[in-house]
Amino acid sequence: MSNEKILLVISDPHLGKLLKDGTLRPAGYQVTLAEDRHSVESVPGFSSVDVVILEERSDDDALVEFAGHLLHTYPSLAVLLIVSAGRDDLVLRALRMGVIDCLYPPLKPANVLQAVRDGIGRRERIEIWMRKQTRRNTDILRRRVDVLKELEQIGRSVTASLDLDYVLTAIVDAAVNITGAEEGNLLILDDDSGELYMRAARNFQDEFVRTFRLPVSDTLAGEVIRTGESVLLDEGTLQKIKTSYLVRTLMYVPLKVHGRVIGVLGVDNRESKQAFTRHHLALVSTLADYAAIAIENARLYSNTEIERRKLETILDGVEDGVIVVGFDHRVILVNRTARDAFGIEENDPIASNPIEDIFHHKELLYMFTDGHDAHTYRSELSLDDGRVVNAQLVSIPDVGFAVTMQDITYFKELDRIKSDFVNTVSHDLRSPLTAILGYAELIARVGGVNDQQREFISRIHISVRNITTLINDLLDLGRIEAGFDVHKELVPLPMIVQYSVDSMMNSLDKKRLKLTLDTPEKLPKVLGNPARLRQIVDNLLGNAIRYTPEGGNIVIRLRVERDQVIMQMKDTGLGIPPADQPYIFDKFYRASNVPSDVSGSGLGLAIVKSIVESHLGRIWVDSSLGKGSTFTVVIPVANDNL
Ligand code: ADP
């Protein structure tokens, strides 16, 4: 029995009941009765109603419009009208609008049922047609999605793979699959011979692919190369291509790189007459673009590779050691000298490895990891084979950091010999100087001297004292460098600083310098030689006083940071010219801007540096000319502190 749903919109209760219970229900339909036309769409279950029967009311002009509205919104709905006789104009309009039938009272059950069956039949036909259409559209969409997926896959492999053979073969395969062609190929122009050769192919014999050569002149593919325009051939334009193979339909698309045509991507059919469409052309053009990108990428990569090798060969030839590391602390490049220095074998894989996996030299690693934070751009590294290298860290924008190293073993040895010599001479000079001082003092005692003679004697005193200070400094330096200061104890640095400040109060007052001590309440002790540590503070504070004009400021700051005590001596003095800064810790070096009336030997900072290093610490300077200098000393905290 039929189970369709019918909605009656009838205001006459008698007629409604008659139709519902007398005609439609007995025929097996589910019937709902509604009185108000305007609320039918909100009747429960309206969306599954098959037939709507509307009744004309007196002076009802809106009936046809309402029927039209329902049909417009629900095109497969069957709408029947009950109209009074003589309304032919209304009936005509209704039928034109798509109403199934118009019934005239008195209604005969057979007529009503026939009209309902017609309506239901029409609705079913529409629905079957819609289902078919939907299925077709879905299939088309599914095929398009597959094509897009294939294109996406190719796009991904173009960017992800450097294997040009693989990518180009995949592109030709995709062109064949997408177009349903029998075969496909990718022809590339050989600039030297001016001929096209087959770079990738599908469904061609290997031998044919290998030996294939096609001139550009007078060939279809050549025309595409010359004009940069695609070619679509169908059966109507059947041609024998100058390759000795006959095709029925064909499509050639140019491969363009920076506006220049470098090849052709083609698909063809030898057997089938299936023509290629504009849609195929658009898809294969996309594939041709991918192929062009892949070829260009491969060319750029190979150029980069050549340049990289060239650079590597040049760097390998350089006598200095070079190590380049990325911002991610992975090794980019190590030249031969640097490999030799750190015992890295020629074939050890190093590129892209973390630096700690490749290098085990603590100070070198320190330069890369913390060096740039701590301003240690330069450091002397002792290698396992006894050599000493001077290493500088530079940052390379967009790349990372590079350490370059020069072998300074020879200069170190020279320096040692010079120091030995200076030590010996200094030692030997002490006795005659003591004698000179002694005799100068005796002159006045053994007889009268006039004022001028007294003045001369006093100058001898001053000069001998200056030379003695210099000699003592030199001998001191020799002792520190030789590592004779074995005595070490736990030393509180704030106390040392305080003693030093107290001893220089006079000089500070004389130049009206303001000194600020910035020390935390608790500071861990360091393991050191108190006299030597005092020498550090004396020298740095002495310099700050000497090189800061009257009325300036000096700040001594003590801090603890990561198991290290940090002392900073900051002044508002002359500053040090940048060109002199790398050398001020060398013996006898004085910066070019030292005023002529400020005496000094240039040994103080060399002594300070030696002492700092003998305490396993580091020292550096930040200075800006005319504004002031900050000397920073870092010494490790003693292990058994408190
Ligand atoms: P000097 O006996 O000349 O002071 P140092 O070894 O103590 O020798 O210092 C080396 C050089 O460093 C000085 O001659 C000076 O040019 C520079 N220098 C050191 N400390 C300061 C400072 N606080 N301000 C400016 N220049 C300084």
- The backbone outline, from C-alpha atoms, is elongated
What is Rg?
Answer: 50 Å
Strand sequence of the main sheet, in spatial order? 8-7-6-13-12-9
Q: Please describe the biggest sheet, giving its number of strands, its sense, and whether it closes into a barrel.
A: 6 strands, antiparallel
What is the end-to-end distance? Answer: 101 Å
Ligands bound to this protein structure: adenosine-5'-diphosphate
- How much β-strand is present in the residues? 15-25%
**DSSP helix count?**
17
Q: In summary, what is this structure?
A:
This protein has 642 residues and is of the alpha+beta class. It is 45% helix and 22% strand. The chain has a 6-stranded antiparallel β-sheet, with helices on both faces. It has a 5-stranded parallel β-sheet with strand order 2-1-3-4-5, sandwiched between helices.
Description:
This protein has 642 residues and is an alpha+beta fold. The chain contains 17 helices and 25 strands. A hairpin with a 4-residue loop joins strand 6 (183-190) and strand 7. The model has no long low-confidence stretch (mean pLDDT 89). It binds adenosine-5'-diphosphate. Adenosine-5'-diphosphate (ADP) binds at residues 539, 543-544, 547, 571, 573-574, 576, 584, 589-591, 594, 600-606, 629.
